[in-house]
Design brief:
This protein is an alpha/beta fold and 166 residues long. The chain has a domain at 74-150: Ribosomal Protein L15, Chain: K, domain 2. It has helices at 56-59, 78-86, 98-103, 135-143, and strands spanning 74-77, 95-97, 114-117, 127-130, 132-133, 147-150. The strands form 2 sheets. It has a 3-stranded parallel beta sheet with strand order 1-3-5. It has a 3-stranded parallel beta sheet with strand order 2-4-6. The longest helix is centred in the middle third of the chain and has 9 residues, at 78-86.
């Protein structure tokens, strides 16, 4: 068998229908869209329109609250931290900062900071400098002989409804 003799299985592929190419094609003139009107043209915005009646999406009550000042932390577990140390991605003897975690590709990006979660276990003594941690994670790191230094992000008082980092 040669590469030029390969072909897909019989009946597995189908040619694309070319619309608007004459009446003999069966999809000529109107191109399978019917006759005239808004729906036969491009840029139809009729979905959600109920003939002037208040649409369903406007009749239903609004729910919930979106906090524009909420912090979005990148989470890392003790198990992921230990596996990165075992794989020699991170040097446990040096201080592990958020920038070190990003550069060693343990986390993809730095949003509002890194939060350590207590899932899994850690056996190595580590010195962490991160934004946040859970109590079980802090206890596990201290039990292994390490320590966690928390970074405090100073936020300026609210001016004109917006905060600014100091």
């Amino acid at each position: 068998m040669k590469l030029n003799e390969l072909s897909p299985k019989e009946g597995s592929t189908k040619n694309r229908t070319r619309v608007g190419r004459g009446i003999g094609s069966g999809k000529g003139k109107t191109g399978g869209r019917g006759v005239k009107g808004q729906k036969s043209r491009s840029g139809v915005s009729i979905n959600g329109f109920e003939g002037g009646q208040m649409p369903l999406y406007k009749r239903l009550p609004k729910r919930g609250f979106h906090n524009p000042f909420a912090k979005h932390y990148v989470t890392i577990t003790l198990a992921r931290l230990q596996s990165a140390i075992d794989a020699k991605q991170i040097d446990a003897k040096k201080e592990i900062t958020e920038e070190v975690l990003v550069s060693s590709k343990v986390i993809r990006r730095l949003r509002d900071g890194v939060r350590l979660l207590g899932t899994g276990e850690i056996k190595t003594k580590v010195n962490l400098k991160i934004t946040g941690t859970t109590k079980p994670a802090q206890a596990a790191v201290e039990k292994a002989g390490g320590k966690i230094e928390l970074i405090v992000q100073n936020v300026a008082p609210i001016k004109n409804g917006k905060t600014s980092k100091a």
